[in-house]
Amino acid sequence: MKVTKVYDCSIIELDKHHSSQGNISIVENCKDVPFDINRIYYLYDIPGGESRGGHAHKELKQLIVAVSGSFDVIIDDGRVKKTITLNRPYLGLLVIPGIWRELVNFSSGAICMVLASEKYDENDYIREYDHFLKYKNHGK
Ligand code: TYD
What we know:
Layout: E1 10-13, E2 15-19, E3 22-26, E4 39-43, E5 52-57, E6 62-68, E7 71-76, E8 81-86, E9 91-95, E10 100-104, E11 111-116, E12 125-126, H1 129-135
Antiparallel strand pairs: 1-9, 2-3, 4-11, 5-10, 5-12, 6-9, 6-11, 7-8, 7-10
The structure holds thymidine-5'-diphosphate (TYD).
Thymidine-5'-diphosphate binds at residues 39, 41, 43, 52-53, 120.
């Protein structure tokens, strides 16, 4: 997980059914996302100007979806940074292990849903950027 790159993070298009009564998108375990979903959490009521994330994971895989509104996800492998705007409820950003991420520029009322491959485990987090660079062997 030390050698993963931002280019290995991809946008996944979820199943979407459109009708005159509105739309529905569906996520099925292991079918629409390339991992077993063990946890779902969502961020909401994010005050203007706030950012979230600011960490990496050693093993966790996540699919990040803007189910309402929009925000930017900055992904960083220690060498390359990329900013991806999420603003469609049927598009998810797959973030693989070993990628530093920051979520910024939340629109008012935005809801960020995260599908995660593992249950919550604080030991899986890398919360210091210099630790992250060392983990990726890009530090001193
Ligand atoms: P954190 O993952 O740091 O949030 P973000 O990356 O969105 O800024 O989590 C914030 C707090 O919530 C932290 O104290 C841990 C707790 N938390 C859980 O207890 N379980 C979870 O599944 C998650 C994602 C967070």
